[in-house]
Amino acid sequence: MSMRLMFILMISLGLSGAVASTTLAESANDDSPTIKRAKLKFRLGGARIASQPPVTAEPVAVKIANPLNFPYVPLPRYKPGTPSYRPVKYPSTPQLIKANRRGEVSIVLANLRRERNQKTARELRPTLKSTWSSAQLTAAVKRCDLVLATTNIDAKRLDPIGGAGGCGIAAPLLVTSFGAVKVNPPAKLNCNLALATYKWLIDKAQPIARSKYKSPIVSMRQLSSFSCRSRRGSGTSRISEHSFGNALDVGSFTLANGRKISILKDWSTTGALFGIGKDANFLFDVHKAACASYATVLSPRYNKAHANHFHMDMGRSGRYKICK
After folding, report:
1. For a FRET experiment, which of 58, 81, 119, 308 has its CA 20 to 30 Å from that of 302?
2. Averaged over 197-205, what is the pLDDT?
3. What are the pLDDT digits (tens) for 218-257?
4. Alpha carbon distance 265, 279 (integer Å)
5. What does the alpha-carbon distance between residue 289 and residue 292 come to, in Å, rounded to a whole number?
6. With DSSP H G I counted as helix, E B as strand and the rest as coil, what are the percentages for the chain, rounded to 5?
7. Strand 260-262 versus strand 247-255 pairing type
């Protein structure tokens, strides 16, 4: 293409742009009602009128596509520096109660508040000289009411023990049975641990016993529940979870057919790993199932101090998991 032809095309495009801008300016300054209606119709979503009647003609009534009769309100222009709108996200309340298809309600154990701050409680010393505040006692009683109302735990309410500055339970329970499983002797626990033990026995241990022995568990022997002491019984070690009613030691189980399964006599790590011995496999499966409800579960496999029992506790609000 020659330079002369390109020059002619550029001049032509410039002239056409000028004419178009002049036409638009004239249209914008035109205050005829017909033009106003056409603009309104276009802004509200209607179709643009293809051809406008002459200005001298009578105004033509135009039906506006606005079934909700909304007035035309132009949106404000965006201003630089104005933050974009973001919807406010409100924290959702943790679900505490759930129901299954049969309408049975239960508590979500992980969402149930604790009696004390477990992170600071581990630094306490075994003493019964502290007290509970009225707010702590009221909250603890309400939690226990909820636990007892949604479970089949047979327990006696006790007076508050100790306080938040040392050993103690704000709303202690003396549990005599978890459903059909008798506790021998009765265990002194806080309500969170009572709920965890109930879920473990009823939802996990009982089905395992029925599957292996065709007979349910009718009693459980506990060796230690609440006890104001250090972990190793010495004043230099940290305070034990037993000091808060937050731990339970289980020594044996008795079935409805009279069979007794003792952790001291029947536990066998080798037998459980190789599938040798029904009792060893039962204890291994029950121990493993407990890890879903507790923060710490210790067996004879952990050390010699646990040769005759399972130690189970709720730990530091479930912050860590030990299952050995």
Report:
1. 119
2. 95
3. 999 999 999 998 887 655 668 889 999 999 999 999 999 9
4. 10
5. 6
6. 35, 20, 45
7. antiparallel
Rounded Cα distance, 309 and 263, in Å: 6
Residue from 261, 219, 241, 218 nearest 311 by CA? 241
For 83-121, the pLDDT digits (tens) are 665 655 655 667 888 887 887 788 888 888 888 877 788
164: left (phi over 0), alpha (psi -120 to 50) or beta: alpha
CA 271 to mean position of chain CA atoms: 38
Residue where the block lists tokens 């399972």:
310
Domain ranges of the chain: 22-75, 97-323
Question: What's the predicted TM-score (pTM) here?
Answer: 0.69
Structure-block tokens of residue 313: 């506790």
Q: Distance between CA 192 and CA 113 in Å, rounded?
A: 8
Owner of token pair 């023990």: 161
Measured in degrees and rounded to the nearest 5, phi and psi for residue 39 equal -65, -45
- Exposure of 176 in the CB half-sphere (CA atoms within 13 A): 5
Spatial contact of 163 and 238, defined as CB atoms under 8 Å apart: no
Question: Hey, is 79 helix, strand or coil?
Answer: coil
Tokens of 154: 């047979």
| DSSP one-letter string for 91-110 | PPPPP-EEE-TT--EEE-GG
Name the packing angle between helices 134-150 and 191-199 (round to 10°).
20
The residues, ordered by sequence, that sit 6+ positions from 121 with a Cβ below 8 Å of its Cβ are 239, 244, 316
Cα→Cα distances 304→1, 50, 114, 298, Å: 98, 94, 31, 11
Structure tokens at 213: 């022995």
Give, as one character, the DSSP assignment of residue 234: S
CA–CA gap between residue 281 and residue 300 (Å, rounded): 14
